[in-house]
What does this fold into?
Amino acid sequence: MLLVNCPWCGPRNETEFRYGGQAHVPYPADPHALDDAEWAAYLFYRDNPKGPFAERWMHGTGCRRWFNAVRDTETYRILATYRPGDPRPDLPPTHPAGERR
It folds into this structure.
């Protein structure tokens, strides 16, 4: 079972949370100027990296607040959580230099 650290409530069981997609995706500055292809890119296309990835999560059965988490997509381990508006924390590499992934 995964333990998720809510920035407001503290560590809780993963079943209390809902995934919300990639974090730090800016809303278009002029949404009326976008064509259909640009809207599709904004709505549906997201990064899919191997390793640390910033995501949005919501504490559904707790405070019901949204927050950001950096999760390693290889191991599923949550490396850090932080409140919206806070900068993404600098984290050391999840795999030391020279280690095979």
